[in-house]
Every structure is written in structure tokens, then in C-alpha cells.
């Protein structure tokens, strides 16, 4: 479904030690939720943004749904990105447009006729539990509600893939669990493949089927819920491996 083959990204001159992502290969199965976790500066966001070529890899190949994004022209990429929604930490809403008008933006860009746009906006509002907020402006909403609008906008064009960059990092734990529930629902009901960058182990444990741990621009470890199981130990002093697999292995 999503395939990265030996992708690297350098900022500034190549080979001067300023590598953000180095020689990463990753395959994410259709319909799964994949987490990318790691400390600040590990390269998580850069890796995510290479999946829809918002960051163009300096080296390597990105394929989604069998389409090779890395060799596409800008016009081809714009079309391909309609199948890849994106959710941001700071929501990135347009403040002088209502909630409904925010959700309508990707539909306008995709050339969907106005009558169909309104119907789709209502569906998306319902999906994220904001049916009564369509006429509000972003400033009238809580953080969790703003992120629900961000998610509604990201799924408006029926994408196959949803890329989420720290979607809950600006939110408190209770609001976070509501947002994770919305993402889970989108995955289970609509079959959307989700990739989520986070530094919160609880997000991985509650949501993800598989997870990659990043360090210094590389994937250092990978885990799968089916094979490894994830524990619920909130022992934040432990390594990612210890947090996910528990003490058992160590003792
Ligand atoms: N546009 C850019 N120009 C220069 N360097 C960049 C740029 N974007 C990222 N970097 C560098 O690349 C490395 C990886 O950054 P990235 O944002 O991908 O990490 P991250 O794991 O997502 O970190 P965080 O959790 O803090 O967001 C960092 O050293 C960062 O400073």
C-alpha cells in the first residue's frame, strides 16, 4: 500500500552530516494504522512528509497504491494527493472561513460541483461528531473540535491514506482519546490506511497495529501488535522497546 524504498532526505548540502532521514525502507499494509515514534529531531515528520512528497526525497522511491509518487510531475502529484489526506498538530484551519467552508476547501480544489460539496461536508461533519458546528468559526471551537475539523477536511475527498503529524500533541489526554476514537472509526469503517507520527507512547499503544521507532534519521526498531503485543505499562523512563514489550523480556 505505502512503500518507501531506501529514502533519504538531506537539508543543506548532501553528506555534510545534516541528514534528516537516511536510507529508510518501510512497507505499510493497506487498512492498517502505523505509528512512527521517536525523540525530537529523529526525522519522524520528514519521513511522513515524504510519503506524499511534500518533502521530496533526495534519494529513494515512494509508492502509494502502486503509483510511484517520486517520479510524478507537480500536476500529477496534485491529483495523487487527493487520495492522501493530511492532519497537522496545529490544525492549520483557515480562520476567516466557517467550519463547513474549511471542510469544503479540498472539494473546491478537486473541482467537485457545489451541490455535491454541501452534501459531502454534512457527511464529514457527522463523521467527526460536529454536525451542529458547521456555521461556527475556528476561534469559537476547542482544540479537540478544531482537530475534528482538520480530520473532516482531510477525509473530504475520500482518501485511501491519512497522514497524521502529531495530531494530539496540542491536546489534553481526555480530548486525545476522543480524537483517537475518531481516527479508529475512520480506519475501521472506511478502511483508510493511517500513518501517525507521535512522541506519545499511549497513542501508539491505544491505536497502532504496527510501529516504527526512529532515531537519528533511521528506523531502529519495528513492532507489530499481532506479533509482539503491546503492554500497558506507563513506565516512561523505559526505552521504547521496554515500554512496548514490557519488562518480561528484560527480567
Ligand atoms: N526545512 C528544514 N531545513 C533544515 N533542517 C530541517 C528542516 N526540516 C527538518 N530539519 C532537520 O531535520 C531533522 C529531522 O527533523 P524532523 O522535524 O523530521 O524530526 P521530528 O522527529 O519530526 O522532530 P519533532 O518531534 O521535534 O517534530 C532535524 O534535525 C531538523 O532540524
Automatic annotation (TrEMBL):
GO terms of molecular function: ATP binding
Domain ABC transporter: 2-241
Gene3D superfamilies registered for this protein in UniProt: P-loop containing nucleotide triphosphate hydrolases (3.40.50.300)
PROSITE patterns: ABC_TRANSPORTER_1, ABC_TRANSPORTER_2
SMART domains, A to Z: AAA (SM00382)
Keywords attached to this entry: Amino-acid transport, ATP-binding, Cell membrane, Membrane, Nucleotide-binding, Translocase, Transport
Pfam family, one: ABC_tran
Entries under CDD domains matching the protein: ABC_MetN_methionine_transporter
Name under which the protein is recorded: Methionine ABC transporter ATP-binding protein
Organism whose genome encodes this protein: Paenibacillus nicotianae
Taxonomic path: Bacteria, Bacillati, Bacillota, Bacilli, Bacillales
Amino acid at each position: 500500500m505505502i512503500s518507501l524504498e531506501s529514502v533519504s532526505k538531506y537539508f543543506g548540502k548532501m553528506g555534510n552530516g545534516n541528514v534528516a532521514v537516511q536510507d529508510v525502507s518501510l512497507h505499510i499494509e493497506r487498512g492498517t494504522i502505523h505509528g512512527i515514534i521517536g525523540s525530537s529531531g529523529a526525522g519522524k515528520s520528514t519521513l511522513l512528509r515524504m510519503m506524499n512528497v511534500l518533502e521530496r526525497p533526495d534519494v529513494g522511491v515512494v509508492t502509494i497504491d502502486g503509483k510511484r509518487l517520486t517520479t510524478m510531475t507537480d500536476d500529477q502529484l496534485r491529483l495523487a494527493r487527493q487520495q492522501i489526506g493530511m492532519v497537522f498538530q496545529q490544525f492549520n484551519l483557515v480562520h476567516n472561513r466557517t467550519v463547513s467552508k474549511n471542510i469544503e476547501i479540498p472539494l473546491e480544489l478537486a473541482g467537485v460541483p457545489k451541490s455535491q460539496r454541501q452534501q459531502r461536508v454534512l457527511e464529514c461533519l457527522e463523521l467527526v461528531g460536529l454536525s451542529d458546528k458547521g456555521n461556527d468559526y475556528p476561534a469559537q471551537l476547542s482544540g479537540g473540535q478544531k482537530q475534528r475539523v482538520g480530520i473532516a477536511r482531510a477525509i473530504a475527498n475520500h482518501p485511501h491514506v491519512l497522514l497524521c503529524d502529531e495530531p494530539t500533541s496540542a491536546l489534553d489526554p481526555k480530548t486525545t482519546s476522543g480524537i483517537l476514537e475518531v481516527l479508529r472509526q475512520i480506519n475501521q469503517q472506511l478502511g483508510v490506511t493511517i500513518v501517525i507520527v507521535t512522541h506519545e507512547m499511549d497513542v501508539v499503544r491505544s491505536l497502532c497495529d504496527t510501529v516504527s521507532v526512529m532515531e537519528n534519521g533511521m528506523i531502529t526498531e519495528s513492532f507489530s501488535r499481532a506479533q509482539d503485543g503491546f503492554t500497558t505499562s506507563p513506565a516512561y523512563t523505559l526505552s521504547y522497546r521496554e515500554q512496548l514489550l514490557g519488562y518480561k523480556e528484560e527480567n
